[in-house]
Design brief:
The complex is a heterodimer of chains A (about 120) and B (about 150).
Chain A: H1 2-49, E1 68-80, E2 83-94, E3 101-111
Antiparallel strand pairs in A: 1-2, 2-3
Chain B: H1 2-67, E1 73-75, E2 86-94, E3 109-119, E4 122-135, E5 138-149
The chains are: A alpha+beta (about 120), B alpha+beta (about 150).
Chain lengths: ~120, ~150
């Protein structure tokens, strides 16, 4: 009787520990995915900062990772008094589970007539 | 014989209790590690998103000043495309006002942009200050100095 109870209790504890470890592994995978998406989007934003006004009319950088894909939204405002605002949103999607959004980031670039970055 | 059996039973129980304690400690530390790692990375991601929003706010304010310099405050549309929990606002502080962040003699004024993310535990924000200089055609950003607040 005692043996049966002990084994049952021990089994429950082992199951609990295994489920905690399983959850940890799953969280780790999700976090690695967010971290990778974040790093990709950030480096792409840095690349876009160097783009001229006309470059934004062409093809924007493709996602360098095979696991993700980018969806861009680009809104241009202006020029107003020689300034043009280009607002860029990058949605990083997990290719394995579309349209699962992993990371999204939005910012803008402010350009003068010469195409120089004059904003933040 | 009976006593020996009882002693063996007691030893087994002690072993079970020790194993239970070890497994529990392992499970608890794994859960804590997971929670701490998760909050660190989510915080890094939010920080980046909010900083980008603050920069966007500064740019939007400069464009607004170029269009109509009488409007000195802007705020984001509600909701923003990237999520209802994100927002930004910005304002212009002329250098003639008291206590601007930058030197009166070197700038026309300062544009402040703040990005926000509202989370379950509170509001995370980041602020960018950009020194701006008036030009012939309006007010343009001059990237002389910038500063962040957390």
């Amino acid at each position: 009787m005692e043996l049966a109870v002990s084994i049952a209790v021990l089994s429950l504890i082992v199951l609990w520990a295994m489920s905690a470890f399983g959850a940890y592994a799953k969280t780790g995978q999700d976090l690695d995915s967010v971290g990778q998406a974040m790093s990709l989007a950030d480096s792409t934003m840095e690349t876009l900062k160097t783009y001229s006004l006309t470059d934004f009319n062409g093809t924007l950088p493709a996602c360098p990772s095979t696991n993700f894909q980018y969806v861009y939204a680009v809104v241009k405002t202006g020029p107003t008094n020689s300034l043009t605002l280009i607002e860029v949103t990058i949605d990083v999607l997990d290719k394995a589970t579309p349209p699962n959004n992993v990371y999204v980031v939005m910012t803008s670039f402010l350009r003068d007539e010469g195409g120089l970055n004059v904003g933040g | 014989m009976f006593l020996q059996g009882k002693r063996q039973g007691a030893s087994f129980l002690i072993m079970v209790v020790i194993m239970a304690l070890v497994m529990s400690m392992f499970a608890i530390s794994v859960s804590q590690l997971s929670r701490s790692r998760s909050s660190t990375l989510i915080s890094d991601a939010t920080e980046k998103q909010v900083l980008f929003l603050a920069e966007d706010a500064v740019n939007q304010m400069i464009l607004q000043l170029n269009t109509d310099s009488s409007i000195r405050n802007i705020s984001s549309p509600d909701p923003l495309d990237i999520g209802a929990n994100f927002r930004y606002d910005a304002s212009y502080i002329p250098s003639t006002d008291t206590d601007p962040p930058f030197n009166h003699s070197t700038s026309s004024g300062t544009v402040r942009g703040t990005g926000y993310c509202v989370t379950g535990t509170g509001t995370y924000s980041k602020t960018v200050y950009l020194e701006v200089q008036e030009t012939g055609s309006g007010l343009a950003g001059v990237k002389r100095t910038w500063r962040e607040d957390y």
